[in-house]
Amino acid sequence: MDNRVEFVEIEQPCDMHVHLREGELLRSVVRDSARSFDTILVMPNTRRPILTGKDAEDYRLEITQWTPGLNVVSAIYLTPETTPDLIEAAAKTGVKAVKFYPRGATTNSGHGVRLETLGDPWSALEPVFDTMAQLDLILCLHAEDPDVPLLERETRALKTVTALATRHPRLRIVIEHATTRAAIEVVHGWSNIWTTITAHHLVLTTNDVVGNHHHLCMPVAKSEDDRRALLDASMSGHPRILFGSDSAPHLNATKNRAQGAPFGIYSAPVALPLLVGVFAAYGRTDHLQQFVSDAARELYDIERRPRGTTARRVVYKPWTVPNDQDPHWFWADRRLDYALA
Ligand code: NCD
Ligand code: ZN
What is the pLDDT of residues 226-280, one digit of tens each? Predict the structure, then answer.
């Protein structure tokens, strides 16, 4: 490989969008995140959803009993029952983000808000958004309109997202797991909009999804032009573009169902080595620190731990990703040039 680097060291790597589930499944996957990342933002769409500050704190304890050093940033799930008082109470317990799922858009989004009940731009939620802006809570958006065809869902939602950002200039909004050039353009155009980008969307297009359900997630990977835009964005050093793996494990017994297989890609074991490989191929490993750590530390005001104590090292060491895991690992049977040291 032309641009091979022998190793990369990232100080305090952050994965700002990860699904860890609960119980047995959590126990089996959480160390994969802790191996690569110092800090994670854990998503609240567990089977018993994380709705309050108390839920978030209990969940954080459930996670850290297996991974004591892991710095867990908490989010609660925005439902039709979420009130400004609930938001205020959650902020007091240390919750930093509120996750918005349009009902029906993805796995475990059944508690989410129905878009058609919200008015434009989601004005029924105005009091909640005002409180969040006052308290500096971040709005994490699953920015898809589930009522339109699959490949148009993200671009269709962007109009509402920008209207919301204009109406609430103090509210910090994150478009989660951006998949389109249009979403990246929105981030460039609005100073209160951020985005997370996954590792898998840097390497997949729609063509790779058809015929391989292990590549199926929401939002679905888009065109080659969209992928290029995501690559440029992640390697640009832009302060509002950050890494979020959207690692979303499903046990093989459910994921492999012929019908009704759940959406989600389990990427935690390979995400960091994959990212290093992608950045190295373009000679841009110097921008990994910004994408995988600094942008997140700034947005979420993450405590900077002493230099050197939180770093992860990724080394040049080709390996083949195993295909016999449960949950199935992303990139199985493919070669990665880099590995965690
Ligand atoms: C996620 C999951 O499985 O919880 N699935 C996915 O396809 N990405 C939910 C989500 O982030 O959309
Ligand atoms: Zn997700």
Answer: 999 999 999 999 999 999 999 999 999 999 998 889 999 999 999 999 999 999 9
Q: Rounded to 5 degrees, what angle do the CA atoms 201, 308, 306 make?
A: 105
CA distance 115 to 146: 9
The Cα–Cα gap between 140 and 101 comes to 9
334 versus 122: the higher-pLDDT residue is 334
pLDDT, tens digit, 9 for 90 and up, residues 24-52: 999 999 999 999 999 999 999 999 999 99
- 249 CA to centre of own chain: 13
Phi and psi at 311, nearest 5°, equal: -70, 150
Q: Six-digit token pair at 45? A: 């769409």
Alpha-carbon distance of 322 to 309, in angstroms, equals: 30
Q: How far apart are CA 137 and CA 300, in angstroms?
A: 9
Question: Distance from the CA of 250 to the center of ligand 1, in angstroms?
Answer: 10
- Chain-centre distance for alpha carbon 271: 12
Residue 242 amino acid letter: L
Cα(293) to ligand 2 centroid in Å equals: 19
**Residue 57 token pair:** 């704190």
- 46 CB less than 6 Å from ligand 1? no
pLDDT value, residue 121:
67
| Domains located in the chain, CATH noted | 19-271 (3.20.20.140)
